[in-house]
Amino acid sequence: MSTLNGSCLCGNVQYSTLAAPLVTAVCHCTDCQKQSGSAFSINVVVPAEGFEVEGLSLSSFASDGGSGMPVRRFFCGACGSALYSEVATMPGLFVIKAGTLSDPSVVQPAMHLWCRSAQPWVAIDRALPCFEQAPTD
Ligand SMILES: [Zn+2]
Ligand SMILES: [Zn+2]
Q1: Cβ neighbours of 50 (radius 10 Å)
Q2: Where's the CENP-V/GFA domain (predicted)?
């Protein structure tokens, strides 16, 4: 079984899981744009069970997601890297930010979320499902 692991930019926070990712989705919501400082985030959904985090500098911030339910975003308090989120509408799961993986190329996006707030200069693969919001909303 392969391990999915990653870390923040400064290396103070590291995580790993033995579980295979359930799905990978590119999220174009405005919260992900704010938090990442980029046009979107690449979210890798994994089971909470078996997901392990180490690091004294882990911080978090909670806000209401598009569903009105809270999303708690975990990040490194030392370097600011966005690492993963806990989404109230998805109990038992964590959402890893793929850019923090040791090898982000191992995951393959299967869908795009919040396409209505996607930046006009981002090319979206139209062969993939592209939801205006999140499919569970
Ligand atoms: Zn860090
Ligand atoms: Zn988002």
Answers
A1: 11
A2: 4-122
